[in-house]
Amino acid sequence: MSEDFGNVTELSNRDDGFRLSSHFMSKIRVMNRNIRHLPMSTAERLVVRQSSRYNMANTADLQLGAGGRKGLVSTNAAYLTCATGATSPGGVTRVTSVIEQLKLGYVFLLLQMASNKSKGAKSKNQPPKKKQRNDLFIDKKRPTKKDEVLDDVSDGHSEEEEEAGDLLDGDDDDVSEISDEDDAPLADDFLQGSDDNEDSGSGSTSGSGSDSDSDETDIEEKSRAIDEQRAREEKDAQAEMELNIKEESDEFRLPTKEQQRPPDLANLQMRIKEIVRVLSNFKDMRQEGTTRKDYIDQLKIDLGSYYGYNEFLIRVLVDMFPVVELMELIEAFEKPRPTCIRTNTLRTRRRDLANFLSKRGVELDQLSKWSKVGLVVYNSHVPIGATPEYLAGFYYLCALSLYFFYIQSASSFLPVMALAPQEKERVVDMAAAPGGKTTYVAALMKNSGIIYANEISEARLKSLTANLHRMGVTNTIVCNYDGRELPKVLGQNSVDRVITKDPSVKTSKSLDDIQKCAHLQKQLILAAIDMVDANSKSGGYIVYSTCSIMVPENEAVIDYALKKRDVKVVPCGLDFGCPGKPRRFYPLVHNMDGFFVAKLKKMSNAKKNPINSEDLETIVQTQRPENTPIDKDNTEELKQNLKKQGNKWKKESLKKNVLSKNGKVESPPTSKTKKRTETGKVESPLSSKKRKRRFPSKEEISEAREGKRKAMREKRKQGRKE
Ligand SMILES: C[S@@+](CC[C@H](N)C(=O)[O-])C[C@H]1O[C@@H](n2cnc3c(N)ncnc32)[C@H](O)[C@@H]1O
Contact 252/285 with Cβ under 8 angstroms? Predict the structure, then answer.
């Protein structure tokens, strides 16, 4: 049995990893950018198994190990280890393991090669019995005299073996990739036999049945020798295989401190995947002696390096989402959102616009079922922001820029759809530039009623007014105020609907940013509520929306509004998004930017109680994402500001309200809480007003405050213990 490096079987490199093209081929050829050549002896068969856990250095060896042949091939980025075992009577060899590095990951290929070295002589010999045939697959090679004898005896292979090969080797389609010249002579001839080797066995001991038949003892001895040899070689091969597998252990290990220098991107990505894999089955897959926190910490570092997020963002995201979802979300953020345009129904119809634009070479389609005016642009031969239709105000271009959390895209439709402005209403857009929402509101109102489009930045007023003109909006008054001042300017309870959008256009966020934004947003939402008239016939609604996925900027703001004003959350009327009344939209699910929309209905024009010490705590807590350590300086500053503000409000409130004994500000009596006099009669509000109000003394106030603080401290302590 001679070495034959000329014959190779083909493996093809596919997206999903390696697939063995064929088996029982006379050639073994690994088609991969990394591996050029895998020299094997003729008629070896490959069985491929794949795993993605191997982190191999770029070396270029092919080794045929214990008891087999050694070969070296030039490959440019793969380390292959093949160990051959003893030769079977049938000349079938089982080979080894091959470890391979692929483009984006490391793939472990275990190649078991069953040599079909001997291919002839069937015609002169009985095919081996079934059991014998099965044995052949675990037998190893190294040509011995006996091998040669038996090589000649055993030839061809059974259908069962072929089937087994099919199962192990992959698609039959790939067989066709092998050229005819690769095929035949040695293929599939194991049990069928062939005459090729008939005469080329090992001379006198060939299995032709002529010489050896006469000497049974000799054969028995030889057979015993073969068995012994085989056992030895099997042992060697097993040892080597175990060694190889051990060397390239399947276990993923976290890097030690020394290994934590910046890895290359491929390694980094691989490690992220591995950590996610381990975290999703932590009990079974974790490295001994490590905690979940170890993996999470490494994941945060790696995500930060790979995706370029700051530490704070990663920390918040990791705290918010289970790792698998987090990976999907981050991947989705990486993909650009589609460019969307909104038809300006003040100027044209969507169908007509689509026709105009497609004539100009714009490839577009309807945005989706949920919008009657949106179009998605896939490709355009003309600048979509400079077509005559654009300049004539036929559409508003929604995807202007790609920020991380602040992106204008299809999601900017949703707040206006939730607002559902009606004709002839008075509507306020509190932070309006550059006018995406205002122009949409105007279109829905068919230019009737009044829109107050407010923008704090003078510089941004230009883009706002330019868009209003371009889009033919005529029912809008542009204002230049801080939104928080608007109730004073426009009057309290004076409009039907208000839309308020997060005022930030930042590209990245820190804890400080989020705290400041959340604080401003709370003030803006109260101002928005104060402007709306609860008794409006058609309205009484406030829509609050952000492009942020941060809880302190979303749910916490709504929570705050619910505490401070007589409002309730009502359905947005958007039948998609994540469940719950306020809607969260995630790019991975909805193919739009991370987005939050909440709709409030103002129930009465009465205000709830001003801030008390409890609220101060609530504000600080809700501004901090859960489980996220607070930046001490910022928090102190924020606390100070809030306390100042709180004190001011408190002073005012003390004039109007009575502190109860436990320090809580008592709400104005409602019909349910109307006090009864000692005689059991319900006191009318009028009579209670008439009664002289008793204000608490300073001592009572400070006592109540102290009691409150104590209770809070106890509560926190208990929380920490838990
Ligand atoms: C994200 S943009 C609004 C986008 C706009 N709603 C649209 O649909 O085109 C936020 C705007 O809020 C403005 N802004 C920031 N703080 C504000 C405040 N206190 N009052 C009013 N506007 C503010 C910013 O200058 C910025 O133009």
Answer: yes
Domain ranges of the chain: 9-247, 258-334, 413-608, 654-721
pLDDT for the residue 650? 38
Quote the pTM value.
Answer: 0.50
* Most confident range, picked from 10-24, 326-340, 608-622, 636-650: 326-340
Complex ipTM tops 0.90: yes
From 452, 501, 523, give the residue whose CB has the most ligand 1 atoms within 8 Å, as the site to mutate: 501
Helix, strand or coil, per DSSP, at residue 670 = coil
Closest residue to atom 9 of ligand 1, CA basis:
436
| Residue among 430, 367, 360 at smallest CA distance from 398 | 367
Q: How far apart are CA 499 and CA 572, in angstroms?
A: 13
Q: At what angle do helices 511-531 and 613-622 cross, to 10 degrees?
A: 130
Which residues in 358-391 are b (16+ Cβ under 10 Å) and which e? eeeebebeebeeebebbbbbeebeeebeebebbe
Contact status, residue 328 vs residue 586, Cβ threshold 8 Å:
no
**Quick one: what percent of the chain has pLDDT higher than 70?**
48
Instruction: Name the strand (E) or helix (H) holding 597.
Output: strand 595-607
Binding annotation: 431-437, 455, 482
User: Closest residue (by CA) to atom 2 of ligand 1?
Assistant: 503
Which of the given ranges, 296-305, 498-507, 622-631, 690-699, has the highest pLDDT on average?
296-305
Atom number, ligand 1, closest to the C-alpha of residue 505:
1
Classify residue 245 by its DSSP letter. Answer: H
Binding-site residue numbers for S-adenosyl-L-methionine are 431-437, 455, 482
The mean of the pLDDT values for the chain is 63
Residue 415 CA: nearest ligand 1 atom is 8
479, 547, 572, 578: which one is catalytic?
A: 547
Query: What's the full length of the chain, in residues?
Result: 722
Residue 490 CA to ligand 1 center (angstroms) comes to: 18
**What's the gap in Å between 483 CA and the centre of ligand 1?**
9
- Residue-level pLDDT at 79: 30
Lowest mean pLDDT among 21-25, 95-99, 314-318, 640-644: 21-25
462-482: burial string, b at 16+ Cβ within 10 Å, e else: eebbebbebbbbebbebbeeb
Question: Class of the 413-608 domain?
Answer: alpha beta
Grade residue 590 by pLDDT with cuts at 50, 70 and 90.
Answer: very low
Pairing of strands 565-570, 476-479: unpaired
* Ligand 1 atom nearest to 457, measured from its CA: 25
Furthest CA-CA distance within the chain: 131
Distance from Cα 455 to the centre of ligand 1, integer Å? 6
Distance 434 CA to ligand 1 centre (A): 8
Q: Is 134 exposed, middle or buried (0-12, 13-18, 19+ CB in 10 A)?
A: middle
Judged against a pLDDT cut of 80, whether residue 227 lies above it is answered with yes
578 a catalytic residue: no
Q: Can you give the pLDDT at residue 74?
A: 29
Distances (CA, A) of 30 to 71, 98, 604, 713: 15, 11, 76, 68
**25-39, 479-493, 597-611: range with lowest mean pLDDT:** 25-39
Residues 6+ apart with CB under 8 A from 347: 392, 393, 394, 471, 472
